[in-house]
């Protein structure tokens, strides 16, 4: 004896009204992963460009202000050999004679160690950097170059502004979304990472 399938079961088998919801459930994880990934990596690219702009702004401001770091001399001194060269007047370029001027050691400090001028520079570049940036991330370096200096004249170093140790934080849970989409061992995708160090250098115009 053949039993007939109840009508409600036949209707259930033929019913496709929930198929769209099932398909949505299968692809929503991948879609959200791609969407939030695009948003976050767009933020990353924008933050990188703005950090480079902040570096260029900081070095331009530092070249026309008094030295941010302590220990930067105000005058280029003669060396012992230069003192013996009595015929060489003040104002002679240091590169005109080997050993004419006393070389100056490189001086480095962060914006956190500076005074009023460092605070002014930091206030200018701070809006261009990610929200977790600190004055310790901005470093200034003053380097000696004999081609830029003259004996007995105001010291004119190469000024370098460098942004280092700057971290970028993702706002989207990329790690969780990756696992939801089927990836394994990808929890690090949602973590922050450190920007590569970026720097810009210019000769000082007048540190007086």
What features would you describe in this structure?
It is a single chain. The chain is α+β, with helices and mostly antiparallel strands and 208 residues long. Helix content is 36%, strand content 12%. It contains five helices and six strands, in the order H-H-H-E-H-E-E-E-H-E-E. It has helices spanning 7-14, 19-62, 80-84, 116-125, 174-180; strands at 107-110, 138-143, 158-163, 167-168, 193-194, 198-203. The strands form two sheets. It has a four-stranded antiparallel sheet. The protein is rod-shaped, with a radius of gyration of 31 Å. The relative contact order is 0.18.
Shape: rod-shaped
Number of helices: 5
Note poorly predicted spans.
Answer: none
What is the number of beta strands?
6
Largest sheet: 4 strands, antiparallel
Helix coverage percent: 25-40%
Radius of gyration: 31 Å
Mean pLDDT: 82
Strand order of the largest sheet: 1-2-3-6
Straight-line N-to-C gap: 109 Å
Strand content: 5-15%
The SSE string, one letter per element, is: HHHEHEEEHEE
The chain-level structural class is alpha+beta
């Amino acid at each position: 004896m053949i039993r007939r399938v109840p009508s409600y079961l036949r209707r259930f088998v033929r019913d496709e009204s929930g198929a769209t919801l099932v398909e949505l459930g299968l692809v929503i994880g991948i879609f959200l992963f791609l969407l939030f990934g695009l948003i976050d990596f767009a933020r990353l690219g924008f933050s990188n460009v703005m950090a480079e702009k902040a570096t260029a702004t900081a070095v331009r401001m530092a070249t026309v202000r008094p030295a941010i770091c302590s220990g930067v001399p105000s005058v280029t001194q003669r060396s012992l050999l230069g003192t013996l060269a009595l015929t060489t007047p003040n104002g002679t370029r240091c590169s005109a004679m080997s050993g004419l001027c006393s070389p100056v050691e490189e001086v480095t400090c962060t914006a956190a160690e500076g005074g009023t001028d460092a605070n002014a520079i930091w206030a200018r570049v701070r809006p261009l950097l990610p929200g977790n940036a600190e004055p310790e991330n901005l470093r200034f370096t003053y380097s000696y170059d004999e081609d830029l200096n003259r004996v007995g004249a105001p010291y004119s170093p190469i000024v370098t502004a460098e942004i280092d140790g700057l971290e970028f934080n993702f706002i989207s849970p990329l790690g969780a979304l990756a696992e939801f989409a089927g990836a394994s061992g990808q929890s690090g995708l949602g973590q922050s990472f450190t920007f590569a160090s970026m720097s810009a250098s210019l000769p000082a115009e007048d540190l007086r």
